[in-house]
Amino acid sequence: MAAAIQIINKILASGDHHAILSLIKGLRNGIVYGAKVRFPHALVMTFLFKSDSLRNKIIGILQATYTHSKNLGLFVLAYKTLTLLMQFAQNEKYKPQSFVAAFIAGYVIFGRYNKVNEQINLYLLSRILYGLAQLAVKRGYVPKPKGEVFPMFAAIVWGIVLWLFEHEKDTLQPSLASSMTYLYHDSNTWHNLKDFLLYNKPSKK
């Protein structure tokens, strides 16, 4: 066993087969990162908001963690593989390669609808919109704001989401609509001190 580990360490240190090994390391990192991100999130959200048996809660947490880890690991592997193949075919690295590789891998892996993929895609959407706005300023397509931008950004985001919630609730993601119902509508009803302070749902008379 020790001899085998020494051989593997020599291969890793030599720099040979770096491209292939980087694919394996990318798969590994995607799996580990996915588990680190999803497990605590699923654990907290499940025990806070889901009413089910302990067994079903644990199964749900493990399934969400597995899906996130597997998909992120496979995406990293697919993306790095495709970019390496395009660089090999074109003998050079070009900017469009990253988009094309991610487009294909994203379609195949994150294009399959499930709750985990939906959350990941929505998370990325908010980040890229923010990034594209900054890129527009950086490239000079939009003049650089003279004052503080973040307060206006926050005002627009919260104004739109509350308007949608109050008037077009069915257009919001179910988990968001549920959270906002808890915050803004369920807080309008109570019958006594018990359901005013301790429980969300009003107690039956």
UniProtKB/TrEMBL annotation:
One of its GO terms (cellular component) is peroxisomal membrane. It holds the Pfam family Tim17. The chain crosses the membrane at residues 72-90, 96-113, 120-137, 149-165. Keywords: Membrane, Transmembrane, Transmembrane helix. It comes from the Eukaryota. This is Peroxisomal membrane protein 4. It comes from Lottia gigantea (Giant owl limpet).
